[in-house]
Every structure is written in structure tokens, then in C-alpha cells.
Design brief:
mainly beta, 9-stranded antiparallel sheet, 4 helices
Amino acid sequence: MVVGVVILETGCAGKPSSLPSHKSEVAEERKTETLPQNPAPASSPSESNGDVLFTRWAASQLTANNAELVSITDKRAWPFASQPNTSIVLGLAKRDADAELAKYGTPFEYFPFVLLIQMTEESASPKLLGIALRTDLFMGDPRNRYADRHPKGIDVGPFQIKHDEYAFGITVVEGSLGNKSGILFDLMGLYRYQNGELREIYRDAVWVFSKYSEPDSRSCNVELEVSTQPSNESEFYLIRRKYKSSYVEDWRGTKPVDSCALTSVFRQDYTQSWIPQKEMYLDHDGLFLSENDLGTGRFPR
């Protein structure tokens, strides 16, 4: 089988059921979050032999696509896959920065990657079904313990996009926090596997955080969720992002509220339809949510 490799570069033109609540002080979480301190995919004494072999195998798949493995963030089975024994792998990769970034002392570009794999009885190594390198989402340098941008996790849903087809979700943290302010997003992309190709077909926020935007130096959190429903006009389901809840938090804990700084912005539901010509879900302007849209008038729509 020929495996399709999807690499979406900056400026590409589509978009994302619900995530668990972030019931902790996010600013503090950034200080204690465990990010890899060594970009090399080295094994640790606690890793089993199988883990080491899998890490080496994953690294080889990235090397074949001009990228280097930094770390594996999450790995889990996909029960709604069209093929048996299918699993999803999410991680962080890097490649040499272009000349423009390099002159500012940034030697590498970091970005999330997604592997879709299948375990078979014929081989101890997985079979690669698809790979997606998300080079349009720039992650933080993992050597920086305060890095805000990073791959977060896998959500297997279910996310039904047709009567007989499902997608899966990948979440990354985007945004930036300063000492006194800042905004973070959990961005979830839905991925479709078809004809040997793995590609992101939908992207939207499922959580938004605004640091110290409330009285008494509290921070605003807005939780959103994604659901699908049949369409009267297409075999592809509609995907809706809808408001779920708001809460504020500080060092004392969290408190549910009717609204905070970001609630009014995200309270309105937003539904997207499948665009056959692009084979993805796009917004009303026919565009895909990009990193540059965050915090602008275009996002949220």
C-alpha cells in the first residue's frame, strides 16, 4: 500500500465531541508541565524494550519524511477505525529552521505529527497507514519548560462524519502567556483516513483561557464542545462547535460563572459543512483556521 503523507504548510486553507475540563490553575500548570528536556528521542531506564523499539520505529518514519522525532505525547487505539487493530500516535517533531528564522537564533522548527498505525501478526513492527506533519502549527522549543505551545492529546470520539465513517481528534495547545496576561487555546483537529491518506479535515477551539482578565487577578476559562449531526444536503454530517461552560480560577481553585471575559465571544454556536471541492470542512469564507487567525477578528467567526 502507498502511504499518503500530508504536510500542510503555513497559510493553507477547513475545521472540529467534547474535552475534559481544565480544572486547575493554568498559569501554574505551565510551570510544572512535563515537557521533554532533551530533543533527542532517547530511551529512559523506565521504558520497556517494546517502547524503545517503537520509538525507534516512529523516529525512522519521521526521518523518511525529512523530520526528526522529539517526543511521543500520546498513543491509543482507535475503536472506530475502518481497519482492525488501528492506533493513533501523536508527538512532537522538528526540522531545521529556514534562513529567516535561523538568523534570529532559532535553529529548529517544532511541530506536531500524527501517525496512524496497524499492528499485524506478520510483523513485530507496526504497519504505517498514514502520516500527517502539521508544519503550519509551530510548537514551542521543548527545552523551554515554560513553552506554551505543544501537542496535548488524542480524542477518539466518536466523531461520526458519514453514516459509515468516523474521524478522530487531535488536540494541541496554542497561544502565549506572559507574566500578567495572555491567551491560550486548545485547538482540536479532526482527522480522516481514506485511500491511504491521513489528513486534517476540521479545526476549531474546544477551550480558551485568558490570564488575569477577571477582577482579583482571576483567569477566565471557556469550555466548548464539538458534535456532529446528519445533514439534509450532503452525505457528510454537519459539525457544530457549541458553548459548554465558563469558570474563573486562581491559586485558590476554580469557580463556575455565568460569564467571564471570553464567554460572549464564544457563546454562539458555529456550524460547518463539508466542502466537496476541498474535501474538508471550511468556514463561511471558505478558509481553514490557521495559527495566524488566533486572537484576530477572523477567529472566532
